[in-house]
DNA sequence: GTATTGACCGTAG
DNA sequence: TCTACGGCCAATA
C-alpha cells in the first residue's frame, strides 16, 4: 500500500477536533492530491481498526455515506450526535458551520 | 498486467 | 435543481 498517502490521511483524520467534521475531498486536497478523494474513503474503510475518528469524515454534501461501513448501521450517526453534531436523514445539518478545513491546522505544510 | 470496485468530486446539459 | 459522465487513486481478484 502507498504508505505515505495512507499515513498522511490518518494523521489528518486524527487532527479533526471534537465536534467538527470534514470531507474526503478536503483531506485529499490538503495532502496534495485533490482528485484522490476515493482513495481517502477506501483507506478510512480499512482503518476502522485504528481507533480513528473516521465518523467525522463525510462527503462534500455532509452526508454520512460511510455509515454502513461501521459495525452497526447507526454507529456513525450516534457518535456524531454524541459530540453535538446534529444529523438529520443521514446528513449533517450545520455542515457548513461545523466543517473543519485541514488548512486551519498549519501543522501540516506541504 | 488488466479489470473492477469503492466512505468521492467537479463539470456539463 | 437534478441527472449523467468522466476522472482520479489505492486495493483486490
Question: What are the defining features of this structure?
Answer:
110 residues, mainly alpha, 5 helices, two-stranded parallel ribbon, Arc Repressor Mutant, subunit A, two-stranded antiparallel sheet, 4 strands, single chain, DNA-binding
What's a concise summary of this model?
This protein has 110 residues and is mainly alpha-helical. It has five helices and four strands.
Overall CATH class: Mainly Alpha
User: For the largest beta sheet, what order do the strands appear in spatially?
Assistant: 1-2
Distance between the termini: 21 Å
Helix content: 25-40%
CATH level-3 fold name: Arc Repressor Mutant, subunit A
What kind of sheet is the major sheet? 2 strands, parallel
**CATH architecture call:** Orthogonal Bundle
Q: What structural category characterises the helix and strand content?
A: mainly alpha
The CATH superfamily is known as Winged helix-like DNA-binding domain superfamily/Winged helix DNA-binding domain
Strand fraction:
5-15%
**Mean pLDDT across all amino acids:** 91
What does the overall shape look like? Answer: globular
Q: What is the radius of gyration computed over CA atoms, rounded to a whole number of angstroms?
A: 13 Å
Count of folded domains? 1
Q: Please tally the helical runs, counting DSSP H or I stretches of 4 or more residues.
A: 5
